[in-house]
Amino acid sequence: MLPPTDKKPVNPFELRSLREQVYQYLRAEMLNGRIIPGEYIRLNEMSERLGISKTPLRDAIIQLECEGFVTILPRRGVLMNRLSLQDVKDAYEVVGALEAAVLVDVCSRFTDDRLDAMTAINGRMKKMIERDDFDSFYAEFFGLNLAFHNQFLDLSDNRQVNKIITPFKQRLYDFPRRVYICEWERQNCQEHDELIELIRTGDGKTAADLLQNRHWSFSYYEGFIRQFYEE
Questions:
Q1: What is the pLDDT of residue 12?
Q2: Tell me, what's the pLDDT at 1?
Q3: Rounded to two decimals, what is the model's pTM?
C-alpha cells in the first residue's frame, strides 16, 4: 500500500492549460524583445520567477523547439535560435507553395463579404503606411497581414495547412526589428489589391502564381529581405 499523502492529485487538464499559458508567455516575451535570439533561456530562473514547476515550462520549450524557435542543448540549456537568411528563404518557399495551392482550391468559394473583409483589412494597412506611424505599424500591421491571408486559408478543408504555415510566419514576424521599409510594405499592399481583383474575377491560377512567384518569392524581394533581416 502506498503511504498517505496530502498532495492534491495532478489534474492533467489543469497541467495542459498551464503549459499553454507558459507557451503564450514565452511567445509574448519574444515578441516584445525580452527574449533575444542567440541568448539562453534559464529554466531554473524562469520557473522561480513565474512560480511554477519545470514540467509545464519544459513542455512549452519542447513545443517551441518543434516550431524552430529554440534548440535544446544537453547540459548547456535552451538556446533561442537566430533567424538566418536560409531560414527566411525556406519559410518563403514553404508558405508560398502552400498558400498558392490553397488559393487555387478555394477560389470558387469566396463570397462578396469575404472579399470586402480583405479589402477593409488591406485598407487599414495602407492607412498605417500613409501615416508613417512606426509604433502602430509594428503593434498592428503584422497581425492585419496574417488576418488578410487567413481570409482564404480559413476556407480550406485541410485543417493541417494553418498548423504548418503559422509557425513559419511566426518565426518571420515575432522578433521585433526596428526596420521600416516603406516601399516594400507599399508593394505588399498593392499585391493584396491585385489578389482581391483576381479572386473576384475567378482567376485563381493567376492569383496563385502572384502569391508564390512574387508575394512569397525570396529572389524577387531579396534586396528588401536582406535589408530587413540583416540589420
A1: 47
A2: 45
A3: 0.81
For residue 14, which amino acid is it? E
Pick the CATH number of 85-229 from 1.20.120.530, 1.10.10.10, 1.10.418.60, 2.60.40.2150: 1.20.120.530
CA pseudo-torsion sign 64, 69, 72, 77: negative
CB distance 65 to 72 below 8 Å: yes
> In angstroms, rounded to a whole number, what is the distance separating the alpha carbons of residues 8 and 92?
48
For the chain, what is the mean pLDDT? 87
Q: What angle do CA 22, 159, 188 make, to 5 degrees?
A: 80
Local mean pLDDT, 10-residue blocks, the chain (231 residues): 50 65 88 84 88 90 90 89 92 97 96 97 91 70 89 94 89 73 92 98 97 97 91 61
DSSP character string of 138-201? HHHHHHHHHHHHHHHHTT-S-TTHHHHHHHHHHHHHSS------HHHHHHHHHHHHHHHHHHHT
- Looking at 1.10.10.10, 3.40.640.10, 3.60.150.10, 1.20.1250.20, the CATH number of the domain 12-80 comes to 1.10.10.10
